[in-house]
Every structure is written in structure tokens, then in C-alpha cells.
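User: My collaborator sent over this chain with a note saying "see what the structure looks like." That's all I know about it. Can you take a look?
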Amino acid sequence: MSAFIKFVTTEWYFAIPMFFMSFVAIMLVLWRILLNLGATTDMNRFLPAFQEKLEKEGIEAALRFCRTQPGVIPRRLYVAGLETSRQGLAAMRRAMANVIELEILPDLNFLLAPILAIAKIATMVGLLGTVISMINTFNAIQKATDAKGVTSHAGAIGLALFATALGLVTAIPLVFAHVLFKDWISKFEVKMKSAAQKLLVLVQSAKTAGPARAPEATAARR
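Assistant: Without extra context I'll predict from the sequence alone. Here is the result:
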């Protein structure tokens, strides 16, 4: 521990940027986690309520219902599909595909590039710190005139490796988080496409059932 404190105090021009990058990286990861949580929807609860609203009150009521729900699937994907429902199922499919590719996926990838960039930069800055410290140490050893002077600088070699270690400690969790985020996005994309297909089936069923109800309602009034 004392060696690490010595590294921070003597090599502060490398330690401070590394600590700053670690702090920024933690903030970015937490921010991305919060955004992911805000994007999710409990489809097991949403779909039955949505289907009931669609069947009993129609597309306009279902559209208003989606706009009040949390998550990108009802609030953005389903809204895009329902807004074009009068143009047919093909138009709905195109609208939802465009929303996924051009709006939702870019938003889900937000902050991933900076997270990966900090991971790579932290590793390179750590290596740079180690190299510079090693160069200074070997120069000091070369100037030493006796064995005692050489021995006194031997500890500085180990001290220089703290820069690389600090860079790796920053980079490894960030790379791991980046991989997890990308995997979550891939799975969420599949979930969105499945939800879009379910919406097409529900709307088709509602349109088919609509004309069938009309004669029944007329007969009931008679």
C-alpha cells in the first residue's frame, strides 16, 4: 500500500489522469445502466392490458395507452406502428423497422463508444507511464557510480509498473461492461422484433373482428 501511495505522489502526472478516467468511466457505466432500465418493459404485464384496450376501445385508445407506458417498445415502437395502421400492415412493418434501426438502436448504443475509448486509452496511458518511468529509472541507474546506487533505484522499476496496473484495473471492467451492454442490445433487438410481430398480429385480429362485431351490434339494436 505504501508503494502505491508513493507512486501516486511521485508519478502524480500519470496517476491523476488515470483516476479521472476511472471516475468518468464509472459515471458513464452507471448512466448507461439507468438508460437500459428505463428502456425495458414488462411485456407480460403490458401485452394483456394493451390487447384488451385494442379490442374494446380500438386503435386510437391503444395508441394513447402506449404513449403513457414506460419503455421504448410501447412508447416508441408500438406508437410508430399504430400511427401508420390505417395504411396497412406493410406500412406498419416499415415504420417499426425504421424506428428500430434509425432511432432506438442508436439510442441504445449511446455512451458505448466513450466507454470503450476510455478502456483503450487507460491501457495506453498506463503503458506510457510505465515506459517513461522505466526510462528515467534506467538513466538514473546508468549514472550511479557504485552498486549501492544501483540497488537504491531497483525499487523504482517495480514502482513504474503501477502505471500499467492502474491502466489495466481501469480498462478490464470497462471492456467487460462494454461486452455485456452489446450483448444486452442484441437480445433487446430480438425482443423488439418479436414485439413488433405481435403488434401486427393483434392489429390484424382487431381489424378482422371489427367488421364481425358490426352486424352483431346492429342485430342487437334491432
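A starting point for your reply to your collaborator: The chain has a mean pLDDT of 85.
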